[in-house]
Structure formats: C-alpha cells, structure tokens
Specification:
heterodimer; A: mainly alpha; globular; B: alpha/beta
Amino acid sequence: MNSQNKAFGFIQDHHLQLLPVILLVAVAMTILSESFMTSQNMINLANRVSINLIIASGMTLLITSEGIDLSVGSTVGLSAVGAAIYFQNGWDASFGPYGAIVFGVAVGAAIGLVNGILVALIGLPAFIATLGTMLAVRGLVFITSSGRTIMGFDPRFIEVFSGFTFGIPRAVIVAGLTALVAAYVLNKTTTGRLLQGLGGNERCLYTAGIRVKRLKLGSYVMMGMLAGLAGLTLAASMSAAEPFAGSWYELDAIAVVVMGGTALTGGRGTVMGTVLGAILLGLVANSIILLGISAYYQTFVVGLMILAAIVMGSPVLTGARAN
Amino acid sequence: MKNILTASKICKQYAGTRALKEVDFEIGEGEILGLIGENGAGKSTLMRILCGIEQPTSGDIVMHGKPVEFSGPQAAQAEGIAMIPQEVLLVDELTVVENIFLGHEESGAFGLSKRQMLADTRAILAELDSQQVDPEHLTGNLPKGSQQMVAIARRVMQGGDVFVMDEPTASLTGEETQSLFKLLKKLKGEGKASVFISHRLEEMLEICDRIVVLRDGEHVGNFINDDTLTKDKLVAAMVGSAVANEFARTVSHVGELMLETDKVVISTFQGRKTHPISIQAHAGEVVGITGLAGVGKTELAHVLSGLRPVVEGELRLRGRSITLRSPVDALKNKIGLVSEDRRAEGLVLELTALANMTLTSLKKLSRLGRIEKDRERQLGLDMKDKLNMRTEYLGRDANHLSGGNQQKVVIIRQLCSEAEVLLLDEPTKGIDIGAKAEVYRLIGDLVAEQKAAILFSSEPQEVLGVCDKLYVLTSYGFLGPYAKGALDYAGLMALEFGTATSDTPMEAAE
C-alpha cells in the first residue's frame, strides 16, 4: 500500500473527508475577505457552529439508531423562552441564577419524553410524531412569550455560556464537550453499540431480548435535553429569547449529520463527521455574508451541499450495502 | 387426450448441486395433476421452470405442439401458464375488486367501468363459494384464507390454459379447500389443466387425476389415481430406499429437566390453533421438533422465546412455571432463539461479526457502561476457536460473511450470553454441507456442556440424525416423544403424512 492510499485510508477510518474542503474554504476566505480572520468574526462563527453542533451531536446518535427529531428547533425556542421567564418571574430569587440551566434542560427533557412516548411506546413513525411536536412546541413558545422578545437575563447566567475560558468561547467548550461525550457514547459504550444495532436491525435486537423501547425512549429524552442546552446557549449569546429562536435548527442539524457521513438509514454514525459538517456549514454561511452575496443564496447553497453529500454517500456510487 | 404441455429431459444445475435430473413431465388437456416429493426433491424448481421464473440448464418444453422457451414469467404467461404462488401477493390497501383487476382494469368510454368489474368479481367469488367476501372491502382486513381465495380468483380471472398452484390449500379451511376443488373441476370441464402441489396426500387423492412423484431431482413415480392408489404407495415412492445416517453423534449424558411445555396450545401464522403440545427438554439433550410446512414449528419456537403468546397451557423451566411476555423475559430465563431468518432477524448486518456475537452479553463485558474492548475481543477469539472461523472474520461486517459463518455467529451469541436452553429454528437452512457439519458439531458441544437444545427442522435426515428425542407436529395431532432410533425415515414420513398404521408413539427410553 503506498502512502497516498494510506492517507486516504486514514481519512476514511476517521471520517475526515470534509477536512480538505474546510481547509480550502478557510484559505480561500482568508485571501478573499479581510474581515474573515478577525477575532470578532471567528467568535460569531464559533457561536453559530457551537449551537448547531450541540444539537447535531445528539442527532447523530438518534439518526444512527434510525430515529429522527424534527422538534429540536422548537425545543431550542421553548428552552430559551423558559429561561427568560424564569428570570422574569423572579424564580432566581429562590433557586439562584443557575437554576435556569436546570429549568431549560428539564423543558427539553420533557419534550423529549413526549417524543419518546409517541415513537417508542405508541409506535408512531418518528418523522410524523416529531413534526407534530415541532408545531405544537412552537405554538407553546408563542403562547408563553406572548409573541414578544423577552430580555432581562441575569449576567451570571449569560456569563456561563458566553464568557471565555483560556480565551476560548464558552459556547465552543459546551459544544466540544457535548461532541466528545456523544462520540464516547457512540463508540465506546453499550448504549452506543445498541443504538447502532437498533438502526441496523431493530427486529434482531427485539428477538434477542434487548429492551428496545427503553433504548428508543432514552434516545429521544437525550435529544430533548441537548436541544434545551442549545436553547440556553442561544439565549445567553443574544441576551434575549425571541419567539422565532431556533427556527430551522432541526434542518441545519440533520444537514450536518448527513454531510458528515452518518447514514440516514441507520446503523452507522460518526460524530467526527458531524463536527466537520457543522464547521463547514457555518463556514459557508459565514462566507456568503462576508462576500456580500445575497443571503437568499445561503439556503440554496446549503441545499446543494446536502444533496452532494447524499449523492456521494449513496450506495449506487460507493457500491456498498448489497442487498 | 391431447397434451397441452410436454417437458422432456429437464435438467437444472445450481452451483455445485443438481436440482433436477432429466425430468420428463407432461400435462394433458383437462387434467388435474398432483406433484409431490419431500423438501428439496425439486418440485418448486420444476414449477418455477414451467412458469419461466427460472430457466432450465438443458431440456425442452413443448406447448400446444410447438417448442417454447420461457425467458421470464411474462413469456410463460403469454403462452397461457398461470401461476398462483405459495405466498399471497396482494396489495393490502386496495379493495378486493381493485386487486383482482390490478393491471387488467376494464374500461369503458368514460374511464374505468367499475360496475362491470364489481359484477365480474361477484361472479368469480361466487364460483369459489366466497360470497361472504365483500368485493369493496380492503384486502388487508380479510382473513388469510379469504385472501388466498382472492389471489386465486385474480389469477383465474386473467385466464390461462395451465394453472400452477404451489400449496394453495396451506392457509385454507376445509370448506375453502372444497370450494377450490369445485373450481378446479370446472376448469377441467373447460379443458384447462391444473398442476397442484400439496403436502396433504388425502387432498391429492381426492382431486388429482394423476400424481407425479419427485425424489432428489428425479422423476420416480407416475401414478394414475384410481381406486387402488393409496397414501402408503405414494409415501413409499417419495422415500425410496433407506437414507444413511450422516450426522451421527455420540449420545451425551442427560441431566435435569430444563424446559417443559404442558399441554400448550398455540396459534399458527394462519390463525389455526394447534393440538396441545407437551415437550420436555433436559440438559444435555438435543430435542427435535419436526413436521410439514405450516404445522407450527416456527410458531412454537416463537412461543418458547417470548415472541408469541401461549393460548392455553403452561410453560415450565426447571419445574417452575414461567410467563414469557417478550424476548426480554426469555433472555432473563437464559432461553435463546436462533431465528430461521438470519438476515432479517438474526443479525445486524452493519455490525461486525464480533459485535453481533456479543450483542446480548454487553453487560458483563462492560464497566460503567463502557465496553472493555480487550475482553470483548478475547471472548471473540475464544469462541472463534470453537468454530473453525478465521480471526479476520471477527472484524468483518456480518453482511460480508457467508451464510454458514453468519449462522455460526448467531449461535455463538447464545453461547456468549450463557443461554441454557437454545431454540434453533432451521439452523442449517441455506448453508453448505461443510458448514452444516460444523453447526451440528457446535450443537453437540453445547449439549455436552449440559445445555438443552431444541431443534426445529423440516429436514427428516437432520432430525433423525441429530436429535436424541423427536416430536412430530402434524395437522391431526402432536406425536412423540420418539427416542433416537425408534423412527426411520419411512416411519417419520408415514407419521408426517398421516399414513402410519400404528398411531401409538413409542415412549422415549428413560
């Protein structure tokens, strides 16, 4: 095996296929735009990528197990509004400013539990069930916020998610830890192995005596909690909770999971691929703005990127997955 | 009588094996022809060739006096051959009338003529005595038997000269079977021929004009159905001379009573209730459950592994009554199922062989939820030595293993999770002879370790050779146990087909 093949094998084994593309875009942007390599732009980029990555890490596990959750964007909104209401109602007087974090994550967990009950226990198709909760939860966001943007977060709360540690934005740290834990769970633990099995052949796991329903239920609760965490990060970065917060985030998350190389048909997933996908998506969106291209093109380009990823990973092209 | 179809010297060669050897076969106008033979005798292969689904390696087919070559099912259909497959192929979401006319809709000047199609459907269903089937009902909601009748009606409606039916009565009630026979006789009156495959010899004797017997891919008997033809003669022709006992194994020490069913009644996939089933499986024993297709072998395996409920009766493990609500309960009780369908049920094809082996024993291989990969790999290496499997296969995706190796992986999973009662449903289906021998050796090793193995199989040589004790499921009763050696091939066939002179099973030697 020559060194070129070796490098190729290493890239494949570690799901680094997107890395050259990312480097290419970054180098090109450094040349093309003076404002790209500025600290302010990098912080903006990092925030955007981080919030997406928190959700996408969970989505990687969910899609690997052949699940999906379309309600995460709405959950982001409800968690953000929930935290705002927490301070508005003065609950921090009794439970402290950090109680808002517990509250936001708990809101996410509750929505995840509803999804889990619908999908795992009642047996609805995940796509339809979470489409329903997506709309219902967005409705709850409008109701609880009365359609207004809410401000008035405690600075200590904001500091947790938007401060810096060793010069690294906290959002990046939160997202990085989330991705690390997700990768650990997927590759090193029994839960991860069973999630892969669930995505590969649910019938096999069921007949073998695995508690399939509990596993599925748990995966949706995990997803809801991460969406809640992403909502808190978003609220802190904007110092405000707006009723449309988190709109379309579910599609961004699913897009980067697919771009990263996780199979929508389940059974195989890669958190590393998702991390790179999130970086690439953030980079492209950022570039379009910096280059002064109309924001309308952003949606178009992201759509093309998803299609390209799916086509390149399809069994027709790779010749894999016979039968 | 003029021949509609004459097939001569038909041979079919699959990689390595010969499924048909110079089979001659003819069907006359207005003839109802029965085709019988044991599993693997070549009945289905011959039918698939006649219907153009497969092409013969050599041989000629002449139809209506001119030579034909069926390149595919459409070609055979164009010549007037109509096949009714064993499995009902209907669209559940369409109504009966839509199914019957699917792809052959009748249309008038203003689109589909629904009224005409409805009337035609009523007429054909009436011919099949199935007036109770509402033509505007969704097919998926009908009972299995009615669905089969609709499938038959659909085929008859489309017309043809030769109707080929593979086990059409398997899911029919007695009355429905009689209605089908009435239709066959009507077709006969119109000069149309039928070829009929069934395991039920009494049905064959009732309806067929002539019965052809296949054995090991050869045409071994051609019987005109007159008053002198009996089931015994047919069974004798199917069985031939005694078969050597290839899979002999030394009898191991029989230990304590493990799994026991006490007059357990189960329902089959067709919704019929079985006769009460009482089996006893001891540690160190291979227990065989055999019978013809459709008697409930797989269903019994599913009941014992928690996939299907017990209708009546009691399950006991080591003398203690148990209820298996789901496979989770079975795993807890150390009962493991090796499914009949490896790819659909037994394996996660995307996971490696090793991950498939350890799927149900991850708990003991992990600490705080983290899989200790060294221990997992060591367990895999230990297991692989029992199996004659190459080390590199452990890391290979299950999808890329041969059928034999896949089956070994599924059995090994039960060893890893320390199952004490193994339910093996057709464990050697579709694997080559070498892998078969290894699976048998593996079963032998298992019982030597004082586990109990229950083998569900429709291969007579297999159960006769491997099992210490044999039970036979039949449509007329549950028979057994028969100790090893108490039955020979002919005796077993006689029981399965219900032609045994003595119905009293010999008691197993204690």
